[in-house]
Amino acid sequence: MESGRRKGLSGVLSSLSLLCVILDLQLDGVLGATHVEIEQHLEMGRKLLAAGQLAEALSHYHSAVEGDSKNYLTYYKRAAVFLAMGKSKSALPDLTRAIQLKPDFLALQRSPDQDEAQNQLMRANELEELQEEAHAAHHRGDYSTTITVLDRVVELSPWDPESRELRAECYIRLGDPRKAIQDLTPTTRLRNDNRGAFLKLSTLHYDLGEHQESLGHVRECLKLDQDDKECLSRYKQVKKLSKQLDSAEEHIQEERYQDAIDKYESVMRTEPNVLYYTNKAKERICFCLVKNKMPAMAIDICSEAHQRDPRNINILRDRAEAFILNQDYEKAVEDYQEAREFDMENNEIREGLERAQKLLKLSRKRDYYKILGVNRSANKQEIIKAYRKLAQQWHPDNFREESEKKEAEKRFIDIASAKEVLTDPEMRQKFDSGEDPLDPESQQGGGQGGQGWPFHFNPFESGGNYHFKFHH
Predict the structure, then answer these.
(1) pLDDT at 68 > cutoff 90
(2) Structure letter (DSSP) for residue 449
(3) A single Pfam family, by name (predicted)?
(4) Is the model more confident about 260 or about 452?
(5) Which candidate, 20, 19, 27, 23, places its Cα nearest to that of 121?
(6) Is the entire prediction scored with pTM above 0.85?
(7) pLDDT of residue 87
């Protein structure tokens, strides 16, 4: 018997829910009180309700009810807002009072001409059944079914924050934070004080690595209550991390790469539990080490970053550049090829691959860095020092046997060519880009090929008397 009464009450409530919405559109204040202030509240409430600003609309209807407790329409309109917000328990007393003040209030339901009203009342009953089904599915942990049911609920009742919040929770449990954010965002406007939604949105954005968005939401939470402990704690954490990240990127823009490395190491200490920030820090440290021309360390860090994020083309690009600095061109080509598989349209990756391939081809002919035994990051002083040492070692006058002298001549020419190219900024830049400025195949009129002496001068053509003086 009790169950039957509850079902009967539920049915009446569902019917009244839709009835309120229909009447709200049809009556529009016609039967309202004559007092100007009450009418203003009703009109503002109607406009805000139409705009979906339910919390603000409710505030005006509260004022209207307080100003005229004998007007059934003020109670009815406030009930309409309660129902739109999914607060059926709050709507019931207002609907009861409206019926008491106007006993023929339900005449609309009995009118045979109101087909649309009857149809809406049936949809209201469907809504109640769907809500019960959604909560049952959620209770047993069937989140996919819950979402499917709530899709229809939200379609029927788009202003119900509870349904959106429940669906957002299901998305979070299923690992889809983006859709959870889409559901939670409107709920911040559908409730007067929804600090919980702002805090959850801040957390979701934070975990996705969107620290600026996270900071914005937690600030909105503190606007509602500056002493909220959870929001204040979240704000301090996000603010600290956000400042470190922004500072690190500023250092990179200013080419202060070691300072940027220090900041990203601080980021990993500040937030060791969210994978995104550790991955991001490793990626950017890899980049900075390459810029600082520290290939060995860069390869180690870039390789770790690559393991963490295998499809990240920026990491593959930076490790390729580290391999180039380390004169390991085959591996550089491999990394650029892998990056190109992930993004065929990226011009930077395409150009990097072409350059690495040129350098690999060039290294199989002659590599001026290898000839002098210096790193690609060597400065002019280091290059000249290496040249002098090798030139003395391979000077043809040091050898007596004809075969040894011929080998020494070849080596001596290569050493001098290497020094000439690597101490000239323009020629070195061309070589670093994959061209040999002394090879006519890649540079027309640029020299005598693989065995040529720079600027067409060969000291060995004068008869074999070699007189060089080296200054240390």
Answers:
(1) no
(2) G
(3) DnaJ
(4) 260
(5) 19
(6) no
(7) 64
